[in-house]
Every structure is written in C-alpha cells, then in structure tokens.
Amino acid sequence: MTTETEEPALTVDELAARAGITVRTVRFYGSKGLLPPPVIGPRRVGRYGPAHLARLELIEELQRQGMTLAAIERYLRRLPSDLSAHDLAVHRAVVASWAPEAAETVPRAELDRRAGRELTDAEVDRLAAMDVLTPDGDCYRVDAGLLRLGVELLDVPLSQAVVLAAREVLLEHSRAAAQALSRLLRDAVAERAAEDVRSLSAHMHPLVVQALLTTFQRSLRQELRGWLTE
Predict the structure, then answer these.
(1) Sorting pLDDT into bands at 50, 70 and 90, what band is 206?
(2) Buried b (16+ CB within 10 A) or exposed e, 77-112
(3) Cβ distance 90 to 57 under 8 Å?
(4) Judging by DSSP bridges, how do beta strands 46-47 and 103-107 pair with one another?
C-alpha cells in the first residue's frame, strides 16, 4: 500500500490489480497519455504511486458515465498536471454523483476483481456492515462507487465501530443539507414549468455536489489543523 507521501512503489501488475483492470489496459492508457509514465527504479522497473491509481479510478468512473475515450482525453487535459491523489479522488466523487444509483449482483471472484484485491471473509463482513454490499445467495449486491470507498476504508487504522459512527454522522448531516438545499431551490423555481425545473435540477446537481465537497474539505482541513496543533 502507498500513501500520498510515499515514493511510487507499485509494479504495473500491482497497479492493475488495485485498479481492478488488466495490465494491458494500464499500458493502453499510458500510450494514450491518459496516465503519466511510471518512475523508473532499480533494474529499470517502472513504479507507480497513489496519483496513478487515483487517475485510473477517475478514468474508469468517466467510462462508467458513458464518456468516449476522446471525451475523457479532453476532460483530463483540462485538469492541472500536478493534481494529488486526494484531488483526483474528489474529482471522481463529483463524477460519480452524476449517475443514478446502480447496484449489480456479482459472484465473489468478480467482487474481488472490482475491489482490486482478494478480499478476506472478515473484510467482506466489514463491507456488508457498512452497507457497501449485501450478500445474495452465493453472490453479492454491490454499488461500484460505494465499493471503491469501502475498500479504501478497510485500510484506515480505525475500528469498525468508529467507521460506522462516522458514517452515521455523515448521513445525518448530508440529509439535513440536502433537505435545506432542496427547499431553497424548490422555492426559487416554484413558478417555472416542470421541464425547466428538471433541466435546472440536472444542471445544478454536479455543481451542488462540487460545492459541498469543497466546503466540507476546507472545514475538515481547518478542524484537523486546529486539532493537531492543540
């Protein structure tokens, strides 16, 4: 596992496994300029880091939204070249918010592939406790976007009780924010035709999510800075 401050440490095979794609796909994205070249280490072995993984996950999310390769190239060209893995993850979260919820039922082998690693039974139980997936016979009902987040949370050095408590806090306050914003926007467009309201809602959705992410990021950063300097 790599972190934001570590040197690139993943081989192309490890990167592909973590991203849940094939090595061939990784090399294809690299040949198209969608993925920065690896850092060449000892024995001329290419090494990849968190930003490479985050960029791959963003590309895969854009594809799930139906974007063509050419459209993805244009999208990525507009992004600063030095975005961190964290910033890329924020972009992916915004992109994922554009799509309706879409859960699929998959067998265990496919679950592991999408998770980017072989999950233990204990990890699957933790993901189920976080409502990331639901056992369905020999298969699992899972939302791809939630799975990415859930797998990342498995590596966070916090107890399951703390993670679940944090989830409840986020759900409570996000619902409150959504309800308040919904009332505000509904009152603002009360006199408009239904088609105009639907069009405005579709346009506003990613903008509102981006605004919420940005303000939450800044607020959390300020809280953590104050906590760490106490």
Answers:
(1) low
(2) eeeeeebebeebbbbbbbbbeeeeeeeeebeeeebb
(3) no
(4) unpaired
Q: State which amino acid sits at residue 48.
A: Y
Query: Residue 14 belongs to what H/E stretch?
Result: helix 12-19
Of the chain, the percentage scoring pLDDT greater than 90 comes to 20
Sorted by sequence, the CB contacts under 8 Å of residue 154 that are 6+ apart come out as: 123, 126, 127
Nearest-angstrom CA–CA distance, 93 and 88: 9
Which of 101, 31, 18, 94 lies closest to 61, judged by CA? 94
Cβ neighbours of residue 84 closer than 8 Å, sequence gap 6 or more? 4, 50, 51, 54
Tell me phi and psi for residue 132, to 5 degrees: -80, -35
DSSP conformational letter for 81 = T
pLDDT at 23: 93
The residue behind tokens 């309706």 is 100
| pTM of the predicted protein model | 0.55
What tens digit of pLDDT does each residue of 33-88 get? Answer: 999 999 887 788 889 998 999 999 899 888 877 788 888 898 888 888 788 887 88
Could you count the other beta carbons within 10 Å of the beta carbon of residue 186?
11
Tokens of 224: 């953590």
- With H, G, I as helix, E, B as strand and everything else as coil, classify residue 213: helix
**Mean of pLDDT values over 127-141:** 91
Length of the chain: 230
Tens-place pLDDT, residues 152-163: 888 888 787 887
CB 47 within 8 A of CB 38: yes
